[in-house]
Amino acid sequence: MLDVASILWCTGFGLDFSWVHVPVFAPDGYPRYDRGRVTSEPGLYFVGLPFQHSFSSSLIAGVGRDAALVASWIAEGIKGPTMVRHTTLVPTRS
Q1: Could you tell me which residues come within 8 angstroms of residue 44 by beta carbon, excluding any fewer than 6 positions away?
Q2: Average of per-residue pLDDT across 3-21
């Protein structure tokens, strides 16, 4: 088991959330998040989701802006208090 403080899930060009086994998904299958931060699971972030913040979020032109914001949140967490809640995410193979 890994002691992980943050997870950044970069989707690339295909969305596959099958290995994320925490209750963070809406009925439509997409994670519930605010600009990439999953507020119900501290330390879980997504980057590259369609319309994460704007139309360009899943494109090269916009993903950098979103990634920079998420990276700043992760950096704040590293400087801040240690995380109390830990969640184990187990990858599954198809």
Answers
A1: 6, 7, 9, 20, 22, 24, 37, 38, 87
A2: 73
DSSP 21: -
For residues 1 and 88, is the Cβ–Cβ distance under 8 A? yes
Main-chain dihedrals φ then ψ at residue 69, nearest 5 degrees: -65, -45
- E-strand stretches of 1-94: 7-10, 44-47
Question: pLDDT class for 48, splitting at 50, 70, 90?
Answer: confident
pLDDT confidence of residue 75: 84
Domain boundaries, the chain: 7-79
C-alpha distances (whole Å) from 25 to each of 21, 28, 56, 67 are 10, 8, 22, 21
Q: What pLDDT was estimated at residue 27?
A: 94
What is the radius of gyration, based on Cα positions, of the chain?
Answer: 13
Please tell me the total number of residues recorded for the chain in this structure.
94
Residue 23 reports pLDDT greater than 90: yes
